[in-house]
Amino acid sequence: MSKALQGSIVAAFGRHYEIELTDGSRITGYPRGKKSVYACGDHVELERASDDQAQIVRHLPRTSLLYRSDAYRQKLIVANATQLVLVVATEPSFSDELLARALVAAEAEGLSSVIVLNKVDLTEHLDEARARLAPLAALGYKLVELAARHDAASLRPLLNNQVSVLVGQSGMGKSTLINALVPGAAAETREISAALDSGKHTTTHARLYRLASDTGSAIIDSPGLQEFGLAHLTRGAIEQGFVDFRPYLADCRFRDCHHRSEPGCAIRAAVEAGAIDRRRYELFLRISSTTTTPQG
After folding, report:
1. CA–CA distance, 164 with 148 (Å, rounded to integer)
2. pTM of the model
3. What is the distance between the terminal CA atoms of the chain, rounded to a whole angstrom?
4. What is the DSSP letter of 121?
5. What kind and span of H or E run contains 284?
6. What pairs with residue 208 in β-bridges?
7. By C-alpha distance, which of 57, 75, 95 is closest to 222?
């Protein structure tokens, strides 16, 4: 039996993976059997099958797993990330609910979060975008404004000593941002489809890029998405994912309060007092109504 190799998955293509070995070389890896449970960023052990291929034989422990799910399936995004970088733009319009859902998923996995407002050189809807993001900035989420096609330098300091994953809807400019941050990445970009008010899907798989002169820092580009299911989270986990709710949750009269019409609800009282942004509260109601998972 050949000696086991160790490496990290740097790109995921269905059931085949590009794996960076500890010596810096790369090889194509594939799992045993039909089921694949690996994500970009995973650390694995392999047994070489040929000069350029190897079979994955062991899954090394993860520190985090960011994924989305609905009632039928799970979609892995990235393993072992430490930071979520949510990319939105002035054009096309972005979804407040998708943004909130991704932040909840990141909170559940213990990831820090940064929000990037891209395309600030397109000013027609800039004030509107800033207003929609203001409640998140007020909560302490880091907000960076930039125009990736011109300069992404303002984001670089926040990527140091982090394994960051870029997440966002199609057309927000993630691939352009990757090209600005990683010279030579040549991530494919396409123009926005104005008629559909959404971008064309250009990234079809997750890929990890090492940041220059710092092997401990990396950035992972992920495919554009239009929804972010949280079926794997309990209602309690979703509550905790709304960081503005945390100071008030223990004060509700009923332990299993749904924060809708129950008497003595501290969350609704905080909304009425202006301590919780009403739009955030309404997003919570929409998101929590889609899960039937118990409080936990």
Report:
1. 17
2. 0.89
3. 45
4. T
5. helix 278-288
6. 220
7. 75
CB distance 18 to 26 below 8 Å? yes
The answer to whether the CB of 91 falls within 8 A of the CB of 122 is: yes
Strand ranges (E), 65-194: 65-69, 74-79, 83-89, 112-118, 142-145, 163-167
- Beta strands 53-59 and 16-21: pairing type? unpaired
Q: How far is CA 200 from the centre of its chain?
A: 19
d(C-alpha 287, C-alpha 30), whole Å: 36
Helix, strand or coil for residue 251? helix
Residue in the block written with tokens 């909130």: 100
What is the maximal distance between C-alpha atoms in the chain?
Answer: 67
How far does Cα 177 stand from its chain's mean position? 15
- Provide the b/e sequence for 240-277 (b: ≥16 CB within 10 Å): bbbbbbeebbeebeeeebbbeeeeebbbbebbeeeebb
Q: Is 132 strand, coil or helix? A: helix
| Joined tokens for residue 86 | 């949510």
Find the length of the chain: 296
Closest Cα partner for 66 from 229, 260, 270? 229
User: Nearest-5° angle of CA 32, CA 164, CA 243?
Assistant: 110
* CA–CA distance, 290 with 253 (Å, rounded to integer): 24
Contact 265, 274 (CB under 8 A): no
**Tens of pLDDT, residue by residue, the chain (296 residues):** 456 899 999 998 878 899 999 999 999 999 987 778 999 999 999 999 988 899 999 999 999 999 999 888 899 999 999 999 999 999 999 999 999 999 999 999 999 999 999 999 999 999 999 999 999 999 999 999 999 999 999 999 999 999 999 999 999 999 899 999 988 776 544 433 344 344 444 445 889 999 866 668 999 999 888 899 999 999 999 999 999 999 999 999 999 999 999 999 999 999 999 999 999 999 999 999 876 555 54
